[in-house]
TrEMBL record:
Organism for this UniProt entry: Saccharopolyspora oryzae
Active site: 67 (proton acceptor)
Gene this chain is encoded by: rnz
Keyword Ribonucleoprotein: no
Catalytic activity: Endonucleolytic cleavage of RNA, removing extra 3' nucleotides from tRNA precursor, generating 3' termini of tRNAs. A 3'-hydroxy group is left at the tRNA terminus and a 5'-phosphoryl group is left at the trailer molecule
Amino acids binding Zn(2+) 1: 63, 65, 141, 208
InterPro entries: Metallo-B-lactamas, RibonucZ/Hydroxyglut_hydro, RNase_Z/BN
Cross-referenced Gene3D superfamilies: Ribonuclease Z/Hydroxyacylglutathione hydrolase-like
General function of this protein: Zinc phosphodiesterase, which displays some tRNA 3'-processing endonuclease activity. Probably involved in tRNA maturation, by removing a 3'-trailer from precursor tRNA.
Listed name of the protein: Ribonuclease Z
NCBIfam families in UniProt: PRK00055.2-3
Gene Ontology MF term list: 3'-tRNA processing endoribonuclease activity
Length: 304
């Protein structure tokens, strides 16, 4: 059975706390793993969460501020220590390629794993596979920053009652899907007679940005939106000055873009009561709302 879930490894912003590690998020998507923004301590958080280095196929860095990337040296070295048998693709802003190279070889180690660098110049589709397409979209922070979106292509949902009606059974179902039509007895059955459109699912990851067109583009129609909410709305001026979002702004994006599950994260240590983030967001967004905690798992909701 396929698994689609977000494993939260860390939820703090610039400074970690006693209960919140720096950023880190692993998306499990039908056997493919996407590790987003591995901040300091990510390797140890993976152990606590029951995540193996072999679960990682893609590493996605939004930008090169330390709380989003200083765990990278440990993760890359762990891939070699664990003898990762397949290539791992690293996606990151091209402007930070020197930072990536320095962290890749921050200390001496026996490099066994193959890490393929995929610097991002302008955004758009960065990799396509059976999982769909991983896209990058520019955001508005103090340094070059990209958000990411995983888009599954639209497909078809087979209708059992229609298949039964037309006598399509067993291996013939697969033949019909591949060919688009199938001769059954004395008639031809078309695929659209026994199926209906099935929208592909979407996952969006938005870190460290002011409100901008890119935020709304990434969030549009997302089944899960993981989004920074560093500040509360009372500090909206500070949020804009430092290139961040408030909980209310994140919720507004989710509400306007038809998001199904909103995951707030990247909280400033200045706020001891995170219940306020939930209250502020819930006043704007009435969908599924998660205030992220370290080591929690958030399932991608079932298909519409």
């Amino acid at each position: 059975m396929s698994t689609r879930e977000l494993v939260v490894l860390g939820t703090a912003s610039q400074a970690p706390t006693r209960t919140r590690n720096h950023n880190g998020y692993l998306l499990r998507w039908d056997g493919v793993g996407f590790l987003f923004d591995p901040g300091e301590g990510t390797q140890r958080q993976m152990i606590h969460a029951g995540v193996s280095s072999h679960d990682i196929d893609h590493i996605c860095i939004s930008h090169f501020h330390g709380d989003h990337c200083l765990g990278l040296p440990g993760v890359l070295q762990r891939l070699s220590l664990d003898r990762m048998p397949r290539p791992v693709h690293a996606h990151f802003p091209a402007a930070g390629i020197d930072f990536f190279r320095r962290m890749h070889h921050a200390s001496a180690f026996e490099e066994v794993a193959e890490v393929r660098q995929r610097p991002i110049e302008r955004g758009g589709a960065v990799v396509t596979g059976e999982f769909g397409t991983l896209e990058a979209v520019p955001l508005d922070h103090r340094i070059e920053t990209f958000g990411y979106r995983l888009v599954e292509p639209d497909g078809l949902r087979m209708l059992p009652e229609q298949l039964d009606r037309f006598g399509v059974r067993g291996p013939d179902v697969g033949r019909l899907q591949r060919a688009g039509s199938l001769r059954v007895g004395d008639r031809t059955v078309a695929l659209d007679q026994v199926s209906e459109p099935r929208p592909g699912q979407r996952f969006a990851f938005v870190m460290d940005t002011r409100l901008c067109d890119g935020v709304f583009e990434l969030a549009d129609g997302a089944d899960v939106l993981v989004i920074e909410s560093t500040f509360l709305d009372q500090d909206a001026r500070l949020a804009d000055e430092y290139g961040h979002l408030t909980a209310a702004q994140a919720a507004r994006v989710a509400a306007e873009c038809g998001v199904r599950t909103l995951v707030l994260t990247h909280f400033s240590q200045r706020y001891p009561e995170l219940r306020r983030f939930r209250d502020e967001a819930a006043a704007v967004f009435d969908g599924e709302l998660v205030v992220a905690e370290d080591l929690m798992r958030v399932p991608v909701p079932p298909r519409r």
